Amino acid sequence: MSDTITVPDVLTQLAALEDPKMRAANEKRGDDHGINLSKLRALAKKVKTNHALAKELWETGETAPRLLALLICKPKEFTADELDAMLRETRAPKVNDWFVNYIAKKSPLAEEMRQRWFDDADPTVAAAAWSLTSERVAKNPEGLDLEDLLDRIERDMKDAPARPQWSMNETLAQIGIYHPHLRARALEIGERLQVLADYPTAPGCTSPFAPIWIGEIVQRREG
Asked: What's the whole-number mean pLDDT along residues 152-159?
């Protein structure tokens, strides 16, 4: 598609994809849009990478245009302040999820943002920091104080708001999975705190309850 495509053009195409049944289903999860995500990805492929257009779509403040923006932008071109401002606006769960995983984690500023966000009072921001921490625990742990992370999790996870609690639990599981010398402590913390122990898990999926999660992934890895 031509680089001359405009925001109104895109909004018209998004409106054509709107499905009331899909909107009803999404709204139950807190996402205020009615577009099938496979169709949204197909539109993104048609539009192609267009960072300027992505920034304009983000400024609409609407969920569907923002999701498309996250698919067609260039993560490396956002400044630290732009990343910070965008994160603080990601209230819809899917926008937040895609921003953290498609933008923040792929940015060359990921570690700078992780440190900047780590002790932020905004739960959405703190959750992103913990998600970036989980990534480092698994892929690039050098320089991380894993014992301190476990101390923080042990102290704060039980009473944390939902988003940072989920991300802290992910960090707990990643420490247990990738760092055998800390596995026993990670398992003990998970068992004692019981965070997400009752989370409904579909057949064939791994429970997010850290002791089960750790056990299943370690068994697969070390089988």
From this structure: 98
